[in-house]
Amino acid sequence: MRYPAMLLACALVAACSASAETFIIGPTDPAGIQGAIDAAESGDTIELLDGTYQGENNRELDFGGKAITLRSKNRVPRNCILDCEGLGRALLFHSGEGADALVSGLTLRNGLGSASEDAGGAILIGLSGNAASPMIEECIFEGNTALSGGAVYVTDGSAPTLRGCVFVANTASGGRGGGLACADGTPSFEHCTLVGNHAVLGGGGLSAGGGSQVEVNRSILYGNSSDAAGSGAAYCHDGGAIALACSDVCGHADGDWVGCLSGQADTNGNLSFDPIFCLEFCPDDPYTLHIESPCADVFGCGLLGARPVSCGPVPDEGMSWGATKHQFRPRPDEDQ
Protein backbone atom coordinates (compact mmCIF):
# COMPACT_ATOMS: atom_id res chain seq x y z
CA MET A 1 0.00 0.00 0.00
CA ARG A 2 3.00 2.31 0.42
CA TYR A 3 4.19 2.19 -3.18
CA PRO A 4 1.62 4.60 -4.69
CA ALA A 5 2.43 7.19 -2.00
CA MET A 6 6.16 6.74 -2.59
CA LEU A 7 5.72 7.11 -6.35
CA LEU A 8 3.66 10.25 -5.85
CA ALA A 9 6.36 11.70 -3.58
CA CYS A 10 9.05 10.93 -6.16
CA ALA A 11 6.93 12.52 -8.89
CA LEU A 12 6.52 15.67 -6.82
CA VAL A 13 10.27 15.86 -6.13
CA ALA A 14 10.99 15.41 -9.84
CA ALA A 15 8.48 18.12 -10.73
CA CYS A 16 10.04 20.55 -8.25
CA SER A 17 13.54 19.73 -9.51
CA ALA A 18 12.45 20.17 -13.10
CA SER A 19 11.08 23.65 -12.33
CA ALA A 20 14.50 25.01 -11.29
CA GLU A 21 16.30 26.70 -14.16
CA THR A 22 19.93 27.51 -14.88
CA PHE A 23 20.72 30.75 -16.69
CA ILE A 24 24.13 30.93 -18.38
CA ILE A 25 25.32 34.38 -19.39
CA GLY A 26 28.54 36.00 -20.60
CA PRO A 27 30.18 39.42 -20.22
CA THR A 28 28.56 40.79 -23.40
CA ASP A 29 24.97 39.84 -22.52
CA PRO A 30 23.07 43.15 -22.93
CA ALA A 31 20.73 42.51 -20.00
CA GLY A 32 23.69 41.74 -17.78
CA ILE A 33 23.66 39.82 -14.53
CA GLN A 34 20.80 41.90 -13.11
CA GLY A 35 18.64 40.92 -16.06
CA ALA A 36 19.19 37.25 -15.23
CA ILE A 37 18.44 37.88 -11.55
CA ASP A 38 15.20 39.64 -12.46
CA ALA A 39 14.17 36.71 -14.66
CA ALA A 40 15.11 34.06 -12.12
CA GLU A 41 12.90 32.59 -9.44
CA SER A 42 13.84 31.10 -6.10
CA GLY A 43 15.68 27.83 -6.62
CA ASP A 44 17.23 28.95 -9.93
CA THR A 45 20.94 29.21 -10.66
CA ILE A 46 22.79 31.86 -12.67
CA GLU A 47 26.15 30.74 -14.03
CA LEU A 48 28.65 33.25 -15.38
CA LEU A 49 31.06 32.38 -18.15
CA ASP A 50 34.69 33.40 -17.62
CA GLY A 51 35.48 37.02 -18.37
CA THR A 52 35.17 40.52 -16.92
CA TYR A 53 31.69 41.92 -16.25
CA GLN A 54 31.31 45.70 -16.31
CA GLY A 55 28.53 48.23 -16.79
CA GLU A 56 25.42 49.29 -14.92
CA ASN A 57 23.66 45.93 -15.32
CA ASN A 58 26.62 44.14 -13.70
CA ARG A 59 26.92 46.14 -10.47
CA GLU A 60 24.61 47.13 -7.60
CA LEU A 61 23.12 43.67 -8.09
CA ASP A 62 20.02 43.03 -5.96
CA PHE A 63 18.60 39.53 -5.40
CA GLY A 64 15.28 41.06 -4.33
CA GLY A 65 14.75 38.46 -1.63
CA LYS A 66 15.09 35.50 -3.98
CA ALA A 67 16.79 32.25 -2.93
CA ILE A 68 18.99 31.97 -6.02
CA THR A 69 22.60 30.99 -6.71
CA LEU A 70 24.98 33.28 -8.57
CA ARG A 71 28.24 31.55 -9.42
CA SER A 72 31.04 31.22 -11.95
CA LYS A 73 30.43 28.34 -14.30
CA ASN A 74 34.03 27.12 -14.19
CA ARG A 75 34.51 27.76 -10.45
CA VAL A 76 37.78 29.72 -10.90
CA PRO A 77 37.28 33.10 -9.21
CA ARG A 78 40.23 34.86 -10.85
CA ASN A 79 38.79 34.09 -14.26
CA CYS A 80 35.30 35.43 -13.52
CA ILE A 81 35.45 39.07 -12.47
CA LEU A 82 32.82 41.62 -11.50
CA ASP A 83 34.73 44.86 -12.11
CA CYS A 84 32.71 47.73 -10.67
CA GLU A 85 35.12 50.30 -12.16
CA GLY A 86 34.83 52.50 -9.07
CA LEU A 87 31.23 53.34 -10.01
CA GLY A 88 29.33 51.40 -7.34
CA ARG A 89 29.41 48.19 -5.35
CA ALA A 90 28.90 44.68 -6.70
CA LEU A 91 26.02 43.38 -4.57
CA LEU A 92 23.34 44.52 -2.17
CA PHE A 93 21.33 42.23 0.13
CA HIS A 94 18.47 43.87 2.04
CA SER A 95 15.33 41.83 1.49
CA GLY A 96 15.52 39.01 4.00
CA GLU A 97 17.71 36.73 1.89
CA GLY A 98 18.92 33.66 3.76
CA ALA A 99 21.73 31.15 3.34
CA ASP A 100 20.01 29.82 0.21
CA ALA A 101 20.93 33.10 -1.48
CA LEU A 102 24.41 32.06 -2.59
CA VAL A 103 27.27 33.86 -4.32
CA SER A 104 30.17 31.60 -5.27
CA GLY A 105 33.43 31.60 -7.18
CA LEU A 106 33.66 35.25 -8.25
CA THR A 107 36.22 38.05 -8.00
CA LEU A 108 34.62 41.30 -6.80
CA ARG A 109 36.95 44.13 -7.79
CA ASN A 110 37.10 47.95 -7.75
CA GLY A 111 33.82 48.37 -5.90
CA LEU A 112 32.92 51.68 -4.28
CA GLY A 113 30.36 52.39 -1.60
CA SER A 114 27.56 54.52 -3.05
CA ALA A 115 27.07 58.16 -2.13
CA SER A 116 23.77 57.43 -0.37
CA GLU A 117 25.19 54.57 1.72
CA ASP A 118 28.98 54.79 1.72
CA ALA A 119 29.57 51.40 3.28
CA GLY A 120 30.42 48.03 1.80
CA GLY A 121 32.61 48.66 -1.24
CA ALA A 122 31.86 45.23 -2.71
CA ILE A 123 28.83 44.00 -0.74
CA LEU A 124 26.37 45.77 1.54
CA ILE A 125 24.32 43.40 3.73
CA GLY A 126 21.38 45.03 5.48
CA LEU A 127 19.76 48.39 4.76
CA SER A 128 17.14 50.62 6.37
CA GLY A 129 16.29 48.08 9.05
CA ASN A 130 16.05 45.16 6.63
CA ALA A 131 18.38 42.27 7.45
CA ALA A 132 19.79 39.57 5.21
CA SER A 133 21.97 36.51 5.75
CA PRO A 134 23.37 35.30 2.41
CA MET A 135 26.13 32.76 1.88
CA ILE A 136 29.28 34.07 0.17
CA GLU A 137 31.80 31.36 -0.68
CA GLU A 138 35.11 31.04 -2.52
CA CYS A 139 35.13 34.66 -3.69
CA ILE A 140 38.00 37.13 -3.98
CA PHE A 141 37.48 40.69 -2.72
CA GLU A 142 40.15 42.87 -4.27
CA GLY A 143 40.73 46.62 -4.34
CA ASN A 144 37.32 47.70 -3.06
CA THR A 145 36.78 50.97 -1.17
CA ALA A 146 34.12 52.47 1.09
CA LEU A 147 34.01 54.84 4.01
CA SER A 148 33.47 51.79 6.27
CA GLY A 149 33.62 48.13 5.33
CA GLY A 150 36.03 48.43 2.44
CA ALA A 151 34.90 45.07 1.05
CA VAL A 152 31.83 44.10 3.11
CA TYR A 153 29.55 46.00 5.49
CA VAL A 154 27.04 44.17 7.70
CA THR A 155 24.22 45.89 9.58
CA ASP A 156 20.56 45.68 10.68
CA GLY A 157 21.00 42.37 12.49
CA SER A 158 22.23 40.50 9.41
CA ALA A 159 24.06 37.20 9.77
CA PRO A 160 25.94 36.32 6.57
CA THR A 161 28.40 33.45 6.24
CA LEU A 162 31.66 34.01 4.36
CA ARG A 163 33.48 30.80 3.53
CA GLY A 164 36.69 30.20 1.60
CA CYS A 165 37.06 33.88 0.63
CA VAL A 166 40.19 35.98 0.08
CA PHE A 167 40.21 39.69 1.02
CA VAL A 168 43.17 41.65 -0.34
CA ALA A 169 43.94 45.39 -0.59
CA ASN A 170 40.48 46.63 0.39
CA THR A 171 40.22 50.02 2.10
CA ALA A 172 37.92 51.70 4.61
CA SER A 173 38.82 55.21 3.50
CA GLY A 174 37.35 57.14 6.42
CA GLY A 175 36.01 54.60 8.87
CA ARG A 176 36.56 51.07 10.12
CA GLY A 177 36.94 47.56 8.76
CA GLY A 178 39.07 47.38 5.63
CA GLY A 179 38.02 43.79 5.01
CA LEU A 180 34.68 43.75 6.82
CA ALA A 181 32.89 46.11 9.17
CA CYS A 182 29.91 44.96 11.19
CA ALA A 183 27.76 47.65 12.79
CA ASP A 184 24.94 45.35 13.89
CA GLY A 185 24.93 41.63 13.19
CA THR A 186 26.54 38.23 13.61
CA PRO A 187 28.65 37.42 10.54
CA SER A 188 30.82 34.33 10.50
CA PHE A 189 34.05 33.57 8.65
CA GLU A 190 35.18 30.06 7.78
CA HIS A 191 38.47 29.33 5.96
CA CYS A 192 39.05 32.94 4.90
CA THR A 193 42.28 34.85 4.22
CA LEU A 194 42.58 38.61 4.84
CA VAL A 195 45.81 40.22 3.62
CA GLY A 196 46.92 43.81 3.19
CA ASN A 197 43.61 45.51 3.91
CA HIS A 198 43.56 49.00 5.46
CA ALA A 199 41.24 51.14 7.57
CA VAL A 200 41.66 54.73 8.67
CA LEU A 201 39.87 54.54 12.03
CA GLY A 202 40.59 50.96 13.06
CA GLY A 203 40.35 47.33 12.04
CA GLY A 204 42.39 46.97 8.88
CA GLY A 205 41.13 43.41 8.69
CA LEU A 206 37.88 43.41 10.68
CA SER A 207 35.82 45.65 12.91
CA ALA A 208 32.81 45.02 15.12
CA GLY A 209 30.56 47.58 16.79
CA GLY A 210 27.07 48.09 18.10
CA GLY A 211 27.07 44.85 20.08
CA SER A 212 27.94 42.77 17.01
CA GLN A 213 29.45 39.33 17.43
CA VAL A 214 31.86 38.33 14.66
CA GLU A 215 33.05 34.72 14.57
CA VAL A 216 36.26 33.80 12.75
CA ASN A 217 37.27 30.16 12.32
CA ARG A 218 40.16 28.49 10.47
CA SER A 219 41.20 31.80 8.93
CA ILE A 220 44.34 33.88 8.36
CA LEU A 221 44.77 37.61 9.05
CA TYR A 222 48.14 38.83 7.77
CA GLY A 223 49.68 42.25 7.24
CA ASN A 224 46.56 44.37 7.54
CA SER A 225 46.95 47.96 8.75
CA SER A 226 45.22 50.97 10.25
CA ASP A 227 46.00 54.59 11.00
CA ALA A 228 44.66 53.93 14.51
CA ALA A 229 47.37 52.40 16.69
CA GLY A 230 46.95 48.84 17.82
CA SER A 231 44.14 47.93 15.43
CA GLY A 232 45.75 46.71 12.22
CA ALA A 233 44.22 43.24 12.52
CA ALA A 234 40.93 44.05 14.23
CA TYR A 235 39.03 46.69 16.14
CA CYS A 236 36.02 46.49 18.44
CA HIS A 237 33.89 49.37 19.70
CA ASP A 238 30.52 50.05 21.33
CA GLY A 239 30.15 46.52 22.69
CA GLY A 240 31.24 44.68 19.56
CA ALA A 241 33.34 41.51 19.84
CA ILE A 242 35.43 39.34 17.53
CA ALA A 243 36.04 35.71 18.55
CA LEU A 244 38.69 33.66 16.78
CA ALA A 245 39.32 29.93 16.81
CA CYS A 246 41.87 27.90 14.83
CA SER A 247 43.15 31.11 13.24
CA ASP A 248 46.52 32.70 12.46
CA VAL A 249 47.03 36.42 13.13
CA CYS A 250 50.47 37.66 12.09
CA GLY A 251 52.46 40.42 10.39
CA HIS A 252 50.63 43.48 11.74
CA ALA A 253 53.03 46.33 12.44
CA ASP A 254 51.25 47.46 15.60
CA GLY A 255 50.78 44.00 17.09
CA ASP A 256 48.76 40.91 16.34
CA TRP A 257 46.83 39.64 19.33
CA VAL A 258 46.15 43.11 20.74
CA GLY A 259 43.10 45.22 21.43
CA CYS A 260 39.92 43.16 21.34
CA LEU A 261 41.94 40.12 20.23
CA SER A 262 44.00 40.25 23.40
CA GLY A 263 43.84 37.03 25.40
CA GLN A 264 42.91 34.85 22.42
CA ALA A 265 46.46 34.00 21.33
CA ASP A 266 47.53 30.39 21.89
CA THR A 267 43.99 29.36 22.80
CA ASN A 268 41.34 27.50 20.81
CA GLY A 269 43.94 26.52 18.21
CA ASN A 270 45.01 30.12 17.50
CA LEU A 271 48.59 30.95 16.52
CA SER A 272 50.84 33.75 15.30
CA PHE A 273 53.25 32.60 12.59
CA ASP A 274 54.06 33.70 9.06
CA PRO A 275 51.59 31.67 6.95
CA ILE A 276 54.18 31.38 4.13
CA PHE A 277 52.08 32.12 1.09
CA CYS A 278 53.24 30.89 -2.30
CA LEU A 279 53.09 34.45 -3.77
CA GLU A 280 55.40 34.67 -6.82
CA PHE A 281 55.63 30.88 -7.00
CA CYS A 282 51.91 30.81 -7.84
CA PRO A 283 51.19 34.23 -9.40
CA ASP A 284 47.70 33.19 -10.49
CA ASP A 285 46.80 32.08 -6.95
CA PRO A 286 49.32 33.82 -4.66
CA TYR A 287 47.61 33.13 -1.33
CA THR A 288 47.87 29.38 -1.57
CA LEU A 289 50.18 27.91 1.07
CA HIS A 290 53.73 26.58 0.94
CA ILE A 291 54.15 23.00 2.04
CA GLU A 292 56.06 24.23 5.11
CA SER A 293 53.35 26.69 6.15
CA PRO A 294 52.32 26.38 9.80
CA CYS A 295 48.76 26.83 8.53
CA ALA A 296 48.87 23.76 6.27
CA ASP A 297 47.69 21.36 8.96
CA VAL A 298 47.17 22.67 12.47
CA PHE A 299 46.58 20.00 15.07
CA GLY A 300 42.90 19.78 15.88
CA CYS A 301 42.04 22.38 13.23
CA GLY A 302 43.29 21.18 9.84
CA LEU A 303 43.92 23.67 7.05
CA LEU A 304 43.71 27.38 7.84
CA GLY A 305 42.82 30.05 5.32
CA ALA A 306 40.98 30.05 2.02
CA ARG A 307 43.49 28.35 -0.24
CA PRO A 308 45.21 24.94 -0.23
CA VAL A 309 48.89 23.94 -0.19
CA SER A 310 50.19 24.62 -3.68
CA CYS A 311 53.97 25.07 -3.65
CA GLY A 312 57.05 23.51 -2.11
CA PRO A 313 59.72 20.93 -2.83
CA VAL A 314 58.99 17.99 -5.13
CA PRO A 315 58.50 14.85 -3.04
CA ASP A 316 61.53 12.56 -2.94
CA GLU A 317 62.68 9.54 -0.99
CA GLY A 318 63.87 11.73 1.86
CA MET A 319 60.50 13.43 2.38
CA SER A 320 58.24 12.16 5.12
CA TRP A 321 54.90 10.62 4.26
CA GLY A 322 53.13 13.46 6.07
CA ALA A 323 54.91 16.08 4.00
CA THR A 324 54.19 14.15 0.82
CA LYS A 325 50.49 14.11 1.63
CA HIS A 326 50.53 17.90 2.04
CA GLN A 327 51.70 18.23 -1.54
CA PHE A 328 48.45 16.75 -2.79
CA ARG A 329 46.10 17.80 -0.03
CA PRO A 330 42.71 19.06 -1.33
CA ARG A 331 41.03 22.03 0.29
CA PRO A 332 38.41 20.83 2.76
CA ASP A 333 34.92 22.06 1.91
CA GLU A 334 33.62 21.52 5.37
CA ASP A 335 34.93 21.87 8.91
CA GLN A 336 37.19 19.13 10.14
How does this model look, in words?
The structure is a single chain. The chain folds into 2 domains: 21-272, Single-stranded right-handed beta-helix, Pectin lyase-like (Pectate Lyase C-like, 3 Solenoid); 273-336, no CATH class. The chain is globular, with a radius of gyration of 20 Å. The longest helix has 18 residues, at 2-19. It has a 9-stranded parallel beta sheet, covered by helices on one side. With 336 residues, it is mainly β. It has 3 helices and 30 strands. Residues 1-17 and 319-336 have low confidence and may be disordered. 51% of the residues are buried.
What tags apply to this protein structure?
disordered C terminus, 9-stranded parallel β-sheet, single chain, mainly beta
Shape: globular
> What is the name of the CATH architecture of the largest domain?
3 Solenoid
Q: What's the level 1 CATH class of the largest domain?
A: Mainly Beta
Mean pLDDT: 90
Structural class, from secondary structure content? mainly beta
Counting structural domains, the number is 2
Helix content: under 10%
Pick out the low-confidence regions.
1-17, 319-336
Largest sheet, in brief, is: 9 strands, parallel
Q: What's the total number of strands?
A: 30
Work out the radius of gyration: 20 Å
- Do you know the CATH topology of the largest domain? Pectate Lyase C-like
Strand order of the largest sheet: 1-2-5-8-11-15-19-23-27
Number of helices: 3
Spell out the CATH superfamily of the largest domain: Single-stranded right-handed beta-helix, Pectin lyase-like
Assess the beta-strand content as a share of residues: 25-35%
End-to-end distance: 43 Å
